[in-house]
Design goal:
Structural class: alpha+beta
Number of strands: 3
Radius of gyration: 38 Å
Helix content: 40-55%
Shape: elongated
Number of helices: 4
Largest sheet: 3 strands, antiparallel
Distance between the termini: 127 Å
Length: 153
């Protein structure tokens, strides 16, 4: 007699119990909380001691200035650099400062304003003239925001 071979029966895993589903949600919630706390803690640690940008200078705009000297036309706009604590002083004395800047530009030789080095020297001259005329050292620099010079035709 021939022996009957057993027929393999596929094993079907039992359906997950409600208890294991609840554990998965709990573990997922714990992992998410750990991730968030770690992320916020890391961000706080690195940002707490970051230096805050403190601006030490203030700038007052001169407005447009146009000067004609010996047929040369100079059109410029300047910013007057002062310390932050002196910005109110510069705003109050803006008219006097701009008048001094115009006078100094008018007395300057336009032929010596053609290269960047000469313009840099002119900026120093303007700063020194403004400080000496006002009897102060509050003006830290004169910066050309626009500078156009036209030779006579």
């Amino acid at each position: 007699m021939a022996q009957a071979k057993p027929i393999p029966v596929p094993l079907v895993p039992p359906p997950p119990s409600k208890k294991s589903k609840d554990r998965f949600v709990i573990y997922l919630t714990i992992a998410t909380l750990i991730f968030l706390v770690t992320g916020f803690g890391t961000a706080w640690y690195y940002l707490k001691d970051s230096p805050q940008r403190m601006f030490r200078s203030a700038y007052v705009d001169s407005g447009p200035v146009v000067i004609v000297v010996d047929g040369w036309a100079i059109a410029t706009r300047m910013s007057i650099e002062t310390s932050k604590s002196d910005s109110d002083w510069a705003t109050t004395n803006k008219r006097a400062i701009v008048g001094i800047l115009q006078k100094t530009l008018a007395e300057s030789d336009p032929k010596k304003m053609l290269t960047p080095a000469e313009v840099g020297a002119l900026q120093s001259t303007l700063k020194d003239a403004s400080n000496s005329a006002l009897g102060t050292t509050k003006i830290q620099g004169i910066i050309f925001t626009d500078f156009v010079i036209k030779q006579p035709v």
